[in-house]
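Sample A.
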Amino acid sequence: MATEAPTLGEATAPRVIPARKIRWADAVFHGALLLMIGFTLSVLAWLLITIVVGAVGELDYAFLTDAISLQAEKAGFAYAMRGSLILMFWAIVTAIPLGFAAALYLEKFAPTTQAELRSWLFRVERRHAERVAAGGGGTIGSAWVAFARFWSRIGPTVNRVLEVNISNLAAVPSIVYGMLGLGIFITFFGLNKGLLAGGLVLGLLVMPVVIIASREAIRAVPISMEQGAMGLGATKFQAVTRITLPSALPGMLTGTILGLSRAIGETAPLLVVGAALFATNPPSLNPIEANSQPLLAMPIQIFNWAAAPQQEFQDLAPAGILVLLLVLLAVNSVAIFFRNKFSRRW
């Protein structure tokens, strides 16, 4: 039986798609989600407005430059701000070299298979045999070969354990780092409960974030750039340090700055390693003096003022909170600037 061909108008007419019926469960979930978001933003806005209103009458030049005082009308935030900056300095000194080195090792040099380790062991043994044949070698060379044989057995397992533990440490509560610093820096190494120990603890706190962010930045660099350098005669170390590392450095610095913005507002680990509530001398950057100076920081000072029984000290807390928020915004703005200024699309 012959069928009639559709006309031109029927062939080109758009097909009407029936509207999908919205289920009541989806509508309820969507409405509850919007309600929770609105409630959270309302609470945040209320807190910010309360802080700004409370800080208006207290935040002035004298508040930013005066030292800590037992009298509320003379109390300032200068020592706490300087203490936080010194803590960030020691955190940077601790976290950036170790974090960057760990990220480069785990991403570019850490062997992941037994075949890679056997190839590396073969090269080590061949070089040692050539040195011995030339009259060199010695005890150090033999010890290095023994270590290479030992590492060839356990290397991949150790690297996998390191990667898993670094990922887990990034989510550990900050007070755990305070107890770790108390056991390592104060009990084991004999440091005093002071500014230097606090900075080293914050460095431990930031280090997992630095390692993870740095690995992601290194992984984003095309492997073809490194392979091209090696094809032109560069060693793997030269290709990584002169091609991959400079290309990944903006992303690594961005992750580091964001990690520091988290550390600058931490209070719990500083309380564990001996936070102070009063000091007569300003914090010092000298490590010898910092080891014996009281641990002062902006979160600790805010906590002290908010917990004080005098209403005059409680009125100073909103001004300190506002200063801390402005510092955090400034640090995050620097991270955004680095990301937008130096980021590359491969």
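Sample B, a different protein:
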Amino acid sequence: MQFVQWSRSSIQAILKSAKEYAYGFKTYSRAGQIFHIPVAPSIDISTYELFVKMREENKTYPKHRRQNDYLLSGHLKCACNLTWRARTATHRNSRKGEWVERKTPISAYFCPQPHKELRLPECPKSVSAKRAETQVWGKLYEFAMNPDFLFAQAKDRVKQLQQRYEHLQKEQQQILEELEKEFVKRQQVITEARKKMRADADFDEQMRELYKVEERLKRRLTTLEQEIDTYARLDWEEKVKEYVADLQAGTEELNNVIPKTPEEQHRVFLMKKQLVDELVAEAMIDGKRDIQVEFRAKIMELAVSNNYWILRMMAKL
């Protein structure tokens, strides 16, 4: 009998698909449908079950699972109109067919479309995380350092807020007039009751309803007055200027900082990630792996929040 010397890679390939070679069929999916294709069994079921048991017993788990930082998580899309996912390869196959750890882990973003026939030609399938993040951060930096768009949007927002302020004032005046009318109604009911010497259930019901209306109007008036006071006290344009100045200072610092420890590196990532989440509406990658970035700038909302987190966090570096 002649024995065949199987290579390590061939054995690993069989073990990877051990269930298929044991039960005699392979599972494929196409356009969302699942198909079972018969194959010639290469191992018996008892051997497969023994393999599963041994593999489970030999599993090792790291004490501290590595946490990978993905700057564009939730933002990167392709022509398939799917939000890309991210993964990091920490091991590789050596020339000898051994599964060895990489000296430097490699991270990438990829299109989650599992069916080739549904993936559009303009979809590049994957891109290295370093390339994608460098592109998007570079464009975000240019966006923050050139605040013309931010100021233009803020100007429009200030106009909207001014209109809102005027509307609130009109509503306030209307409520004051309604309160005056309700006061007159109540006095008329009381006067009529005194003339007729009436103090029955109908009178009590009328007074309760009038007081309910008055209470409702007063609550609405209090809310309006608080909102009007907020609008009156804030210098919107000055707040925008302060926010943009802080945004530029923080972005410039993040662009130049060189973290010295993993902890510092993670803190810098968190700050960059928050900037990306705040300002990037969408990052669309094309077939050449060039990324077009659409920004959203909620300048007024950010400017008046008094939450200048960039400067506070930079102080910790």
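Observation for Sample B: Residues 153-235 form one domain.
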